[in-house]
Amino acid sequence: MSDVQIVIDTQSCVEHNVSPAEFEQKIKAAITELGFTVGIEMRATHSNILAIHPLGCSELAFSHARDDLPKHEIYQIIMDIFHQMKQ
């Protein structure tokens, strides 16, 4: 089971001219670089789902098994990637 689960919002990506596949790859690389595993899912199964999700994602969830997850930093990384790609 991954540390971080993300559901890509394909419609939001398309509306902002962001390639969902490229967005997914960049998110995986950035979170993996922090030392955490990431799973791109159809639906998050972790119960620790953020109420507010970043642009380009319909869900962002974190594993309860890892209490060292920098949730705010991961959220911001995803937002930054999305904003860089839509420009």
Strand content: 15-25%
Q: In whole angstroms, how far apart are the ends?
A: 33 Å
Q: What is the structural class?
A: alpha+beta
Q: Spatial order of the strands in the main sheet?
A: 2-1-4-3
Main β-sheet description: 4 strands, mixed
The sequence of SSEs as H and E is EHHEEEH
Unreliable residue runs: none
Helical residues, percent: 40-55%
Number of strands: 4
How many domains, in number, for the residues?
1
Structure description:
The chain is of the alpha+beta class. The chain has one domain (about 5-85). Helices cover about 40% and strands about 20% of the residues. It has 3 helices and 4 strands. It has a 4-stranded mixed β-sheet. A hairpin with a 7-residue loop joins β3 (about 50) and β4 (about 55-60). α2 runs antiparallel to α3. The longest helix has 16 residues, at about 70-85. It is globular. The mean pLDDT is about 95.
What labels would you give this structure?
single chain, 87 residues, alpha+beta, four-stranded mixed beta sheet, 3 helices, globular
